[in-house]
Amino acid sequence: MTERGLALARRALGPAATLTEVAGDASTRRFYRAASGPSTAILMVHGEALAPDAPLFSNHRILEAIGAPVPRLIDRDEAEGLVLVEDFGDLTLQRHLQAAGAGGAPPFYRQACDLIALFQSRAPAAMLPGDFAARNALDRERFLFELDHFHRHFIRGLRGLAPTGSEEALMGRFYADLADACDRLPRVYCHRDFQSRNLMVVGDRLGLVDIQDARMGPYTYDAASLLRDSSLDLEPALVREMLDHLARSIAAPLGIGPEEFRCDFDLMALERNIKDLGTFGYMATERGRRDYLAYIPRTLELIRRTVAGDRRWHHVHPWLERFVLDWTG
Fold this sequence. Notes:
Elements: H1 2-13, E1 18-22, E2 30-36, E3 39-45, H2 55-65, E4 73-77, E5 82-86, H3 93-100, H4 105-126, H5 132-135, H6 140-158, H7 165-183, E6 187-190, E7 199-202, E8 205-208, E9 215-218, H8 221-227, H9 236-251, H10 258-285, H11 296-308, H12 317-325
Antiparallel strand pairs: 1-2, 2-3, 3-5, 4-5, 6-9, 7-8
Helix pairs in contact: 4-9, 6-7, 6-10, 7-10, 8-10, 10-11
């Protein structure tokens, strides 16, 4: 890879270009910064060949067409799974707010909410029938897969708990009810992982990365990812302001009122946060990434507040408390 990747970088930046590995995400991809003097780019290494219509490429085309701030595609070697893209730097929204404090959040979160509205209003017209996003959805089947992943990697894997047969049956009914309820929400184009670690701060603007999994899904999915972020504490006043903004920009065009929108948001946030626990459990137990455990207490508190505020889920609170919420680390 290094030889072919370096050749790709030098083809774009000149013969003096070098590669330095940079931190990646939870996937198996690897990332390198290509540099030649002041010029830089990011080399994405997928570890397998990419088809010309791979999700990364089709979603990039869609998002670029609607004016979303995605990095420019500079060059690619599909057979080697190599893609060279514009360098948005290393400053994620998460890191920016951890350093700058809550006062710097509103302008960037307004931009982020406007991007959600942009996805939903304009992306469908830019999609082609054969695009990955047009053929794949965050639907009941996907939610059940995510909830099973949580069950296997958080409850059984990380916590080492073994529910009884009757407890398994109760959990299974809860997972099915939650997946069904989320699947009934209006379906739109979603980024799928629209949270502070995938939003880059570039000056006073946001840049959007990790776009390859974008697909159709519930209209509150990206909002839940952004505003019930398992990796960042957000001021309640900021969340309320952004939800009011989204009620006007994404719910009202669908004929959905503010109260129904808040219920739909909480529903999707519950599924999303439970999914996050499954990811954290998997990363810690299967990938050796114990740093993900730091996100668990915040995520549990988000789940606790959501369940307490929604009578639909009061009947499952006892087993949630026992198998999920009493985490002590």
